[in-house]
Amino acid sequence: MNVKKVKLADIDPRFDGRIRPVVEAVAQIYAESFLERGQDTAIEVRYGSGEEGAPKFILVAGGHRYRAAQIAGWDALDAVISKLNADEARLKEIDENLYKHELDVLSRARSLYERKEVYLRLFPETRHGGDRKVGQVATVATCSPPRFAVDAADKMGISERSIHGYIALYRALQPETVRALQGTTLADDRAELLYIGKIEHEIEQVVLVKKALEAGKKPSELAEETVAAIPTEAMWLAMGRKAAAKIIKMDAPAQRVLLEELVKAGLIQRDQIVRGAVA
């Protein structure tokens, strides 16, 4: 293993896109260790694009160690320079986090979702139905890689069904919903994440989740406790046909939450809700 000293200024850490966010408190502990005993384990980097103005290296593994070096005031770190391409490096980062770290349910689902996308780009022949080159015949000698679900299930020690379940869970969540849930207790509540995913409309899903987080409650609890009356179709049409067409299709719990938001924003009056409900 060829370890070299690489300047931090030459490395793009890509903190925002990392599967496992860098936690400042953890990086601080690493920094203290660096100052006391030095760097024990090298980080891993890959070469950048080589274009003018682009970073010379891109961080593959070692986000907390990179941040720790910054805190400690270091200007360089020991690093292993790999020859991985972007997809290979991303797959390695995902796998390290999936198999070596305790992830919450949401992070595990996100990791498996992205792992499948990367895996199929690297091994398109593993898709159901092929992407196999004309004339290519699968034999034992070719050592074709396994299908994604088989590979992931084997490495994680869980069933293929569980792998598909995690991916389906993540697909049902809106990007803004995911951002709101990250780092919260709800991110490790599988039942609640499944409940949220059943809310198909983007706006109502996001509104319900944010409202629940503000109230310190689970979305399912908030939906049950919200007491605002549900207006009739006539009331929605009075608010405007375009808005009504979207809102009237929402589930009742989400309608209640959205109504509360509209009242809070001053867009409608609470007595309008009552009048609409009895109209």
TrEMBL record:
Describe the location of the ParB-like N-terminal domain by residue ranges. Answer: 4-98
Query: In this record, what's one Pfam family?
Result: ParB_N
Give an example GO biological process: chromosome segregation
User: InterPro entries of this UniProt entry?
Assistant: Chromosome_partition/occlusion, ParB/Sulfiredoxin_sf, ParB_N
GO cellular component terms, semicolon-separated = chromosome
**Which protein, by its recorded name, is this?**
Putative ParB-like nuclease protein
Q: What organism does the record attribute this protein to?
A: Gluconacetobacter diazotrophicus (strain ATCC 49037 / DSM 5601 / CCUG 37298 / CIP 103539 / LMG 7603 / PAl5)
